Amino acid sequence: MTNSKKNVKKTSEKDSSTNKPRNHVVQDATSPFTFNFKQFGSQKSVTVNQTADEDTWPGGALWDIGVLLARVLVMVNTPPPSSSSSAKDKKELFVPRLRSPGIWPKIWKDCSVLELGCGVGLTGLVAAILGARLTLLTDLYVVVDKVAKPNVEINKSNFGLGQRVLALPLSWGNKEDEDACKAILASIDKKSSSSSPPRRKVKKGKGKGKIQSSTATDICGLQNESNSDPSIILIGDVAYQHKPGAASHFDALCSTVLAFLGKNTIVVFGTRMRMPASADLLDKFLEHMEEITIPPIRAEEIDPTFNKFKHQITIHILRKRNKENGSGSGQAS
After folding, report:
1. C-beta neighbour count of 186 within 10 angstroms
2. Beta strand spans in the chain (E)
3. Homologous superfamily (CATH) for 33-193+213-332
4. Could you read off the pLDDT of 193-242 as tens digits, one per residue?
5. Which of 142, 232, 277, 311 has its CA 20 to 30 A from that of 164?
6. What residues are paired with 272 via a beta bridge?
7. DSSP code of residue 144
C-alpha cells in the first residue's frame, strides 16, 4: 500500500512538471490567472486557479481561447467607442461585426448561459459577472470538482453572484447529465416567468387599449423553443487529441450541443486548428448551424499581440440553421 502511494505521488509530480500549455497569453498552468476588465466604468478582476495535474489535464489549465472568449463577452457588453475614444480603445475593445444588430439579447441580465468544457471556468464566470441571469459551467466530473467549482465558489463570494452561477458535471453525450442541466435551466426560467411584471395596458400611442407583455423574453426579443434552451452556449478550444480517421469526442460534443440548441440560441465557438482534423468539429457544427459573423473573428482582432505569431485561432458566432432554406446568410463585415 505504501509503495503504491509513493508511485502515485511520483507520477503526479512528474505530470505536473511536464504539462505546460502552449499558449501566448498564459504559459504557466500552476499559477493563478487574473482577468481584468471594465464594466460601466468600474474596474473588475476575476482570478482563477489552475493545476497541471494529470487527472484534470488539459481542463485544469487556462488556454488562450478562454481569455479571448471572455474578452468577446466584455466587448459585446461594452458600448461602442465614441469619436473621442483613443485609437487603442477602438482597436482593442470593439469589433464592429460582433455588435451587428440581431445577434445578442438586448438585455444581458435576462440571458441564460451554458458553457461546455469550461475548464478553470474563466469565460463562464465573466458571463455571470457581466450580469447573466444564470450561467452553468460544465465539464468532466474531476475537472468540475477540483478546478471549476472551487473557482466558482471564490468568485461567487467576491461578486455576490448567489445562485446565478453553478458548476456541475456534464459528460458530452450523457443524457442523464444533459437532463440535469436542462432541469436547472427550466427551473430558473419558471421562476423568472412567475416573477415577471404583470401585463399592462398601453396608455399612449398606436397600441392604445391593447395589452402589452412585459416579460423578460419580450424585452430580450428572444423566445426559445423550450424553457431548457440556453440563450448562449460557450465552447472554447475543445478540438484536440484527434487524428484523421480515429475515434474522437466530436460526435458526442455535437450531440450535446444539439440537445441544448434552441431556435434563438447563440453559440460562441472558439477554436484553434492544431492539426487538419481540428476542422472536423467546425464542419460538424456547420451541418446544423450557420455563421452569423462573416468572416469569423480572428484572435488579433481582440488582442493585437496575437499578430506576432501564427496561431490559427478563430471565434465563430453560430445559430441554428434554417431548415426551410437549408442554409443561412451571415452578416458581412
Report:
1. 15
2. 33-39, 42-48, 112-116, 134-139, 165-169, 200-201, 211-212, 232-236, 266-272, 289-291, 293-294, 297-298, 313-320, 331-332
3. Vaccinia Virus protein VP39 (3.40.50.150)
4. 444 444 434 344 443 333 333 233 332 333 344 578 999 999 999 987 65
5. 142
6. 313
7. I
